[in-house]
Amino acid sequence: MLIVPQYIPIMAKITRKPAPRKAAVPKKKAKAVLKAATAKPKAPAKTSSKATRPNSIKSWTPAEIHEVFSRFRKANPEPKGELEHINPFTLLVAVVLSAQATDAGVNKATRALFEVADTPQKMLDLGEERLREYIKTIGLYRTKAKNVIALSAKVLSEFGGEVPRTRAEIESLPGAGRKTANVVLNMAFGEHTMAVDTHVFRVGNRTGLAPGKTPLEVELGLEKVIPAEFMLHAHHWLILHGRYTCLARKPRCEVCLINDLCRWPEKTV
Asked: Which of 212, 243, 213 is nearest to 223 (CA)?
């Protein structure tokens, strides 16, 4: 019997060299590297608006301001407020109702109201509940109805049924503020006051006539620069200009009476 020798394969032993170890990084240095890698890029330093705009808006000269209001007067010699009223009391009520509402909306409600209640006593006789029915289309009508009844009572008890003729006294009435007082004093009694609403505030700032952060700042600024001969109608001209020409979103610079004098850097003419 022939014996065939068996061949047993022998596996070569493979040895691998260990990978070289990375040098240890000190903990402090590792944290610094991580912080630098994850840090948000710094925003570019803001330039001060004062530094970039000190001379960008040229101040108005007295001659230019006189020219502006001369043009307004020529275009509209006797401007009228758009709130409909019969007497100082109904004017006071209309202005109180006009807060955060349009003049057109107030007029729509007060036409019928003033037919039945055009004096403080008649307003009290009407009563708060019935008053609400007349003005319910006006925003905040419940609060305004309460104020109108309260101011009517105060006008009767403290001022003999007549609308007071000083700013402080008018401001003491429920629902009446400085703007209300200025409108009443100007329209009812011919005082040279400047009522600053959103339109006047915008025009004063945009044109550069009287820049201010608050309505009071704009009011005082306009009173300081507007010549006395124009003050009786000045706030009406500015309100109408802001309402129909110097609009908030799309000012109509192409038809503006004072576009050549206006200091607004973004004007379109």
From this structure: 212
